[in-house]
C-alpha cells in the first residue's frame, strides 16, 4: 500500500467516527495529557487549530493557560519553509491563512518547549503519518533545542507501519484515548498517566 492510499483510508476511517465518540475520546486524551505531562503547565506549549475531525486541543490549551503555561500556534510561511510558532491566547486577534486555518494575527514569534502534533495515523515505531506536506518534520529539524514532541491521534488510527522515510521524525510520546506511549529503542512502550508524569518531572 502506498502512503497516498494509506492517507485516504485513514481520512475515511476518521470521518466515520461519530460526534459522540470523538467527544468521549477527546476528553480521554485531554485527561491523559493533563495527568501525564504536568510539566506542560510550566513551559511554552505549541498546539494547533483542529480541522477535519482531529482531536481538538483548544480546551486543553485554555486549561494549560490557567495553570501557568504560555501558548503558541503554528503559522505557515511558504510551502517549503519550516513553520513559525507565534504566541496565542484566548481572545487573540486571528486571521485565516492560505489553507483557511485560523492563525494569530501579528503575534510575536516564540520558542516552544513542547509541541502537540496532530497525526492522521501512527505506527508501532512511533512514527507519525501527516498530510504529506512535511511541515512538522522540517520545523523540528530547524529548532534548537528540539522541543518535546507529543503526537496525538485516536487509537483506531494506529497502523502496522506508516512507511517512514529517512527524513521522517518519530514522536517522543504518542497520546491516544487509551494510553500514553513512550518511544524507547525504536518501539512504543505503554505508560499510565502516573508513570508518564514520574518520567517527565
TrEMBL record:
Substrate binds at residue 54. GO terms for molecular function: 5-formyltetrahydrofolate cyclo-ligase activity; ATP binding; metal ion binding. It is an enzyme of class 6 (ligase). It comes from Nitrosomonas mobilis. Keywords: ATP-binding, Ligase, Magnesium, Metal-binding, Nucleotide-binding. One of its GO terms (biological process) is tetrahydrofolate interconversion. Its EC number is 6.3.3.2. This is 5-formyltetrahydrofolate cyclo-ligase. Its cofactor is Mg(2+). Belongs to the 5-formyltetrahydrofolate cyclo-ligase family. It catalyses: (6S)-5-formyl-5,6,7,8-tetrahydrofolate + ATP = (6R)-5,10-methenyltetrahydrofolate + ADP + phosphate. It comes from the Bacteria. ATP binds at residues 3-7. The keyword Transferase does not apply. PANTHER family: 5-FORMYLTETRAHYDROFOLATE CYCLO-LIGASE (PTHR23407:SF1), ATPASE INHIBITOR/5-FORMYLTETRAHYDROFOLATE CYCLO-LIGASE (PTHR23407). The keyword ATP-binding applies. InterPro entries: FTHF_cligase, FTHF_cligase-like_sf, NagB/RpiA_transferase-like. It holds the Pfam family 5-FTHF_cyc-lig.
Amino acid at each position: 500500500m502506498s502512503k497516498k492510499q494509506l492517507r485516504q483510508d485513514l481520512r475515511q476511517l476518521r470521518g466515520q467516527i461519530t460526534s459522540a465518540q470523538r467527544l468521549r475520546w477527546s476528553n480521554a486524551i485531554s485527561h491523559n495529557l493533563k495527568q501525564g505531562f504536568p510539566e506542560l503547565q510550566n513551559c511554552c506549549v505549541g498546539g494547533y487549530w483542529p480541522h477535519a475531525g482531529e482531536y481538538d486541543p483548544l480546551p486543553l490549551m485554555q486549561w494549560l493557560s490557567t495553570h501557568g503555561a504560555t501558548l503558541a500556534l503554528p503559522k505557515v510561511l511558504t510551502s517549503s519553509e519550516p513553520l513559525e510558532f507565534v504566541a496565542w491566547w484566548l481572545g487573540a486577534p486571528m486571521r485565516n491563512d492560505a489553507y483557511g486555518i485560523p492563525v494569530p494575527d501579528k503575534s510575536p514569534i516564540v520558542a516552544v518547549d513542547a509541541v502537540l502534533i496532530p497525526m492522521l495515523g501512527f505506527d508501532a515505531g512511533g512514527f507519525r503519518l501527516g498530510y504529506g506536506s512535511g511541515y512538522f518534520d522540517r520545523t523540528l529539524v530547524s529548532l534548537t533545542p528540539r522541543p518535546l514532541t507529543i503526537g496525538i491521534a485516536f487509537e483506531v488510527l494506529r497502523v502496522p507501519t506508516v512507511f517512514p522515510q529517512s527524513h521522517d521524525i518519530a514522536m517522543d510520546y504518542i497520546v491516544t484515548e487509551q494510553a500514553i506511549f513512550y518511544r524507547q529503542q525504536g518501539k512504543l512502550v505503554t505508560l499510565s498517566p502516573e508513570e508518564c508524569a514520574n518520567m517527565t518531572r
